[in-house]
Amino acid sequence: MNTTIETILNHRSIRKYTDEPVSDEQIETIIQAAQSASTSSFVQAYSIIGIKDDEGKKKIAEFSKNTHVEHASRVLIFCADFYRHELLAENKGESIADTLESTEKFIVGITDTTLAAQNAAIAAESMGLGICYLGGIRNNIESISDYLGLPSHVIPLFGMTIGYPADLSNPKPRLPLHHVYHEGKYNSNVEVYTNQLKEYDETVSSYYETRTSGERQDRWSDQMTSMLSKQVRMNMKDFVQGKGFNKS
Amino acid sequence: MNTTIETILNHRSIRKYTDEPVSDEQIETIIQAAQSASTSSFVQAYSIIGIKDDEGKKKIAEFSKNTHVEHASRVLIFCADFYRHELLAENKGESIADTLESTEKFIVGITDTTLAAQNAAIAAESMGLGICYLGGIRNNIESISDYLGLPSHVIPLFGMTIGYPADLSNPKPRLPLHHVYHEGKYNSNVEVYTNQLKEYDETVSSYYETRTSGERQDRWSDQMTSMLSKQVRMNMKDFVQGKGFNKS
């Protein structure tokens, strides 16, 4: 196994950091790594906003309801972004708004942004830094968007805290490989599927039991059903459509 | 610079492969790497379908209109997938269809799938393999979905070819770092932005000129305006809604 794969397999979200700061040079390398990811038809449909001042981190912590954000050295906000493309088209007297509004370009924007973000994550982790994604920025997406001054065709998708880890838990066990990976065709044999999920429930329970000295024994299936029975962030459709995305 | 960052910065899409096969063990490591990526609230909302037989590759090549697919050792199809969650909820007599239909969960599905895919890409490249993403599978998304036998709440987002590279071009230059990376707030100063894009047009022209011995001098801004003025894959909304995504 090479060191890159070791870094990847060793991933866990880090929410506790030491006071050691992440440098501007490290952030620059992380952004270069992000930019090196594949991009759909070379479109590079994203921007990244870096926050290092205490007030900015406090705001993001409040809006995202993630208190740990205040204690990270850096926060990056990853945004799907077609603003620059819109500007270029306008300068040529052309309109591309109809295309940008399509579900297809919404998919492209999210995909491009996420490819870049995961490169940033791996690059940071390869330097010994810890990261945690913040889907929580969508808890108050309007406020975050206003605070960052995002123009039309720019939406904040998720954040990422970065810092030196003060806490290294074990990586969380994932679904059985052959549940997620199918050969040739999708294998939705309900019996096989259900048995794999039962096996995984036991794996996850043991993980929590060991980690909490027996206090917690959550099953993944209960966690998922509980989480997914709650309607959250139901304003997302209006927000993204208001920014010119996902309308047609 | 460490070897992981070197691998990341050295990325270019590979569309020509040698005949050397990628082994099942390599694919297994690549899938483990994919599964190690962060996942929104531990939801693991994706599946990966691996294709190695000639007929399967031929089908994907036809549907995606990417002839190079036939010559890759392996093809992976990355799908956003809430089918297993739906099954778990059904088994408990609960319904989560309303939540799964939200724009929020559409974002979660695309993000989770893409984080996993980019880990797969980096893992493959770290082993000396080359990869190319296939957004083209969305050219015939209905046919691909039928061919793979995808149930409700599963949508194919993109593919990835994997093989030993027969051709190593130079990495393509990316947008200026400070055009994509903003500090503190989004900087949409139109003059600065426009100048950065002009500078980048020259960079991209030089890249193509060198690569094609002067035959091609495309400017990025022309490529983008031309591509984005064409409405493509406008059936995406109906398709994803038909699969139970992105309705509310």
TrEMBL record, chains A, B:
Keywords: Flavoprotein, FMN, NADP, Oxidoreductase
Molecular function terms, GO-annotated: FMN reductase (NADPH) activity
Pfam families, A to Z: Nitroreductase (PF00881)
UniProt entry tagged with the keyword Oxidoreductase: yes
EC numbers: 1.5.1.38
Nitroreductase domain sequence ranges: 8-164
InterPro entries for the chain: Flavin_OxRdtase_Frp (IPR016446), Nitroreductase (IPR029479), Nitroreductase-like (IPR000415)
Similarity comment: family membership: Belongs to the flavin oxidoreductase frp family.
PANTHER family with a match to the protein in the record: NADPH-DEPENDENT OXIDOREDUCTASE, OXYGEN-INSENSITIVE NADPH NITROREDUCTASE
Name of the protein described by the UniProt record: Oxygen-insensitive NADPH nitroreductase
Phylogenetic placement of the source organism: Bacteria, Bacillati, Bacillota, Bacilli, Bacillales
Gene that specifies this protein: nfsA
